[in-house]
Amino acid sequence: MARKKKTSEGGLRGDEWLPTYADTVTLLLTFFVLLYSMASVDVEKTKSIAQAFTSMMNGSEGNSLLEYNMYNGEVPLIGGETQDNIEGGEELTEQERMYKNVKEFVNNNNLSSIVDIIDDERGIVIQLRDNILFETSSSDLREDSKEVLNKINSLIASVENPILVEGHTDNRPINTSRFPSNWELSADRAVNVVRYFIEVKGQNPTRFSAAGYGEFHPVAPNDTYENMAKNRRVDILIVTTEKEEE
């Protein structure tokens, strides 16, 4: 009777791991060939794949595989979600990115208690109550309002979008030598905010527009003092432009 081959401790021969290892290498090689076939030929990207594969086979540490992106080099192949992706893997639209950035800016600059952020079909609205900017029946900027406007100016300076400033009032009539109606009051308030950004803060005037809507665009019924206060406001609209899909 022939002698049986001696086995290593545990009763297994020392080479029984080879089939599993060979299968693993074959699967990995197939995986990378598939990736290569899907990607456009790029020497640098090919080198990255080769280096990652070599590192894995040698058992050395490295993150070159995680950093590789077969599409554009911006998103890692593994764990590649970014802050500009939403659930389902869809990229954020310009409007969604702007809303996110404005919201973060408002929170970081302690403005959340005095301004509201509105996601409007035209863009992102920074809404300020009139008593933050003006005295009653006046369109002259309050001195203490300029600190708020200075912070908003730094946000405006960080984007290139057009800016539309809109003045609104409640439905109580006004009739003075300066303001015969709420049209004049709301328009003059919007203009003075625009002039502050342009003349004091040095913003490009071609980006700005001003409009006065009087009492005709309320956000609440003018049936209580609280609701009327909501309607007396200045809206600073950061206009977003979405490209139409072909």
UniProtKB/TrEMBL annotation:
Localization terms from the record: Cell membrane
Pfam family, one: OmpA
PROSITE patterns, per database record: OMPA_2 (PS51123)
Listed SUPFAM superfamilies: OmpA-like
PANTHER family referenced in this protein's UniProt entry, alphabetically: LIPOPROTEIN YIAD-RELATED, STATOR ELEMENT OF FLAGELLAR MOTOR COMPLEX
Transmembrane region(s): 21-39
Residue ranges of every copy of the OmpA-like domain listed in the record: 121-242
Recorded family membership: Belongs to the MotB family.
Phylogenetic placement of the source organism: Bacteria, Bacillati, Bacillota, Clostridia, Eubacteriales
InterPro entries: Bact_OuterMem_StrucFunc, MotB-like_N_dom, OmpA-like, OmpA-like_sf
Topology with respect to the bilayer: Single-pass membrane protein
CDD domains assigned to the protein according to its UniProt record, in alphabetical order: OmpA_C-like
GO cellular component, one term: plasma membrane
Keywords attached to this entry: Cell membrane, Membrane, Transmembrane, Transmembrane helix
Record's protein name: Chemotaxis protein MotB
Principal location listed in the UniProt entry: membrane
